[in-house]
């Protein structure tokens, strides 16, 4: 679900203190975006909104979430009706795991 190697890479790039700030900013931006998608998923902006959350999540290694976003982006481009509930569930799971930290024995190579 999470690319722990990407998390470690980002943590090394920005430093431990700044990583906490990056994570807080990510969570804040994602909370806003997910609330907007949940409350008022504008079909005209759906592709752009999905693209935004996918890009933000990609930086933190949320690979399953990113894959789901990409599939939904493609569907939105073709005008397909998009059920966002799997996206919300996947984000909640990824957020919980990310906040819990790297699991013991995780392969980060």
Automatic annotation (TrEMBL):
One of its GO terms (biological process) is phosphorelay signal transduction system. Keywords: Phosphoprotein, Two-component regulatory system. The modification Phosphohistidine is found at residue 51. Residues 11-109 form the HPt domain. SUPFAM superfamilies: Histidine-containing phosphotransfer domain, HPT domain. It comes from the Bacteria. Pfam families: Hpt. GO terms for molecular function: protein kinase activity. PROSITE patterns: HPT. This is Hpt domain-containing protein. It comes from Rhodovulum bhavnagarense.
């Amino acid at each position: 679900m999470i690319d722990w190697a990407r998390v470690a890479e980002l943590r090394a790039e920005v430093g431990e203190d700044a990583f906490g700030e990056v994570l807080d900013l990510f969570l804040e931006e994602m909370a806003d975006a997910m609330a907007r998608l949940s409350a008022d998923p504008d079909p005209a902006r759906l592709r752009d909104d999905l693209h935004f959350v996918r890009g933000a999540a990609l930086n933190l290694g949320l690979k399953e979430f990113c894959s789901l976003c990409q599939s939904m982006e493609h569907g939105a481009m073709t005008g397909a009706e998009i059920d966002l509930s799997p996206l919300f569930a996947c984000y909640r799971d990824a957020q919980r795991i990310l906040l819990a930290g790297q699991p013991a024995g995780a392969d980060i190579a």
